[in-house]
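Loading example: each entry is read as two labelled lines plus one structure line.
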Amino acid sequence: MIEKSNIPELLSKFQDHWNPRIVGELNGQHVKLAKFKGEFVWHKHDNEDELFLVINGSFTMQFRDGDVQLSEGDFLIVPRGVEHCPVAEQEVSVMLFEPASTLNTGDAGGELTRTDLVRL
Amino acid sequence: MIEKSNIPELLSKFQDHWNPRIVGELNGQHVKLAKFKGEFVWHKHDNEDELFLVINGSFTMQFRDGDVQLSEGDFLIVPRGVEHCPVAEQEVSVMLFEPASTLNTGDAGGELTRTDLVRL
């Protein structure tokens, strides 16, 4: 039997920031949920486009040519190769849709890199 | 400059049922918004998995082995090859993630088939 998932229930299962959980997989893509707070690192993904959908709260996606403010119900697609850096003054919950190969810090690496993501 | 999209604003731009709009494209996948009301047709997609995320309202995804009720904040992934038929007593707004190749009625065809989807 195919089971549904509930976003608020999934979000209640973790509290840490910048550590996406995998909550679904289809067509070689991952559906992820993450909580952001503070500033991430500037990075790009050479081969993956990324979708960010705000579930609760708000954040700013910084690009080299300007910022985009995102609130609940907004989504943004960051094309491959485009440098970006999310920053959230307050905690924000975000759904991500991206290829299964996507590494959170892209080409930047560093201490915020998360591999072996937990599946909820 | 990369622009965001707002789901409620996009949903306000159309009123018809069973006629998905394309609201984003990434990695060969489409992000769509649709409004459902009434019963669709039983069908399957031989090569595409489909994600349904409820934005407003509720609906039932019928499978051959049982029903799944979905409300706001719920999502469901229908794997390729699995027969399904959505039904909504009241209007429901749904976000879809699926390959760009996906036809709404899959293998069933018929009068509810929509090609050349409008991009919002």
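The interface with chain A takes residues 1-8, 24-27, 29, 31, 48-51, 61, 63, 65-66, 68-70, 73-79, 82, 97-99 of chain B (CB under 8 Å).
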